[in-house]
Design a protein that fits this description.
Layout (H helix, E strand, L loop, with lengths): L1 H20 L11 H10 L7 E5 L5 H10 L2 E6 L2 H13 L6 E5 L12 E4 L3 H14 L5 E5 L10 E4 L5 E6 L5
Parallel strand pairs: 1-2, 1-4, 2-3, 4-5
Antiparallel strand pairs: 5-7, 6-7
């Protein structure tokens, strides 16, 4: 009887968690290590960069940007469980000075100090973000979007992830 009750509780929690995720414009899908590395390589991330990962999930791109590329990195995530997980990962990796995770809204988070913005969201989220990102980023800043393009923008480069899906790289131009 207790096994049945435990399974019922687990099923209820799973459904609640799934329902919580369905309220976002992008579901969380973990990105494999090879693809994370390709995203950061294609974005030409280096020690002088500040990488902002909007919708950072468990923080794996933030951790890799700081640990493997020497960049400062900020992850923005709305889900409090993932924020805690990502903060723990940053702490355990010894990256508190180079990486941070903030609980926040990707649609309102200021990206003006970023030199690289990473997106693994949905086509809808990319569309909602594109004008604000264009206005806030400085010329030369890069936007790297995995899987979904930013409609109306011309990519500087289209790479390929391990799974064969595209990685789009955009570079901000002068407003002139």
């Amino acid at each position: 009887m207790t096994v049945v009750v435990l399974l019922a509780i687990l099923a209820a929690v799973s459904l609640l968690w799934l329902g919580w995720n369905l309220t976002f414009d992008a579901l969380w899908q973990p990105t494999d290590r090879v693809t994370v590395r390709r995203i950061l390589l294609l974005g030409e991330v280096g020690p002088s960069d500040h990488v902002v990962d909007l919708g950072c999930g468990d923080g794996r791109i933030v951790v890799s940007a700081a640990r493997d590329f020497g960049a400062r990195a900020t992850g923005v995530e709305v889900d409090p469980c993932r924020v805690l997980w990502a903060r723990a990962w940053v702490l355990l990796a010894g990256l508190r000075r180079r990486a941070r995770i903030v609980r926040g809204n990707m649609y309102t988070h200021d990206v003006s100090n970023a030199s690289v913005v990473v997106l693994f969201l949905s086509a809808t989220a990319n569309f909602k973000l594109q004008e604000r990102i264009r206005k806030e980023l400085s010329p030369g800043a890069r936007v790297v979007s995995y899987y979904h393009p930013i409609w109306g923008w011309e990519p500087e480069l289209i790479g390929e992830a391990r799974d064969g899906y595209p990685i789009y790289v955009y570079r901000m131009k002068d407003a002139a």
